[in-house]
Amino acid sequence: MSPLPKRALLAITSYHGPFYPNGDNTGLYYTEALHPYTVLTAAGFQVDLASETGEYGIDPHSVTKTALTDADALVYNDKQNDFNQKLAQIKKASDLDPTAYGLFFASAGHATLFDYPKAKGLISIAESVWARGGIVSAVCHGPAILPHIKDQATGKSIINGRTVTGFTDKGEVELNLMDKIK
């Protein structure tokens, strides 16, 4: 087997519609993409950002003063920052070569619950990474994509028979969002 490319695809949700009880939209939870991007680039990975449609929106709750550390706020407000530049030029998953990646990371936000389960382009890339022995990972609500990623050898989900963690139901109850995600 050929060595895997030291290149990661950081998946971003395309959904950016109404969600919160007050009518606010949901979308990408900013730091749940920023932090993995920072760690992966520091580890020497090339990182591409892609969504299913080539579009995204940021969850406004993720960029409040209480949600961002001072360091995160500096990055968020610097439109010239590499991460923000990549977000501004986000790629469409179906336009990418799945074999270019050795790592797939599904970032999060409640919005992932709406589009990740049907995100054929992102799922295809993750399946290719998995089939070649790469890493498929996610954070918070990002695991919503995992049941739909199939192991090409077995035809079953890559999480079949495995324990997976994600955002807790308790958190959804505390945020008064449980009815929206059921």
Write a brief structural summary:
With 182 residues, the protein is α/β, with parallel strands linked by helices. Helices cover 29% and strands 12% of the residues.
Looking at the structure, what is the overall shape?
globular
Sequence stretches where pLDDT stays below 50 over 5 or more residues = none
Mean pLDDT: 93
> What proportion of the residues is helical, as a percent range?
25-40%
SSE order: EHEHHEEHHEHH
Task: Describe the fold and architecture.
The protein is α/β, with parallel strands linked by helices and 182 residues long. The protein is 29% helix and 12% strand. It has seven helices and five strands, in the order βαβααββααβαα. A five-stranded parallel beta sheet has the order 3-2-1-4-5.
List the helices and strands and how they pair.
Elements: E1 7-11, H1 31-42, E2 46-51, H2 70-76, H3 82-88, E3 91-92, E4 103-106, H4 112-115, H5 120-131, E5 135-138, H6 169-174, H7 178-181
List key phrases describing it.
182 residues; alpha/beta; 5-stranded parallel β-sheet; 29% helix
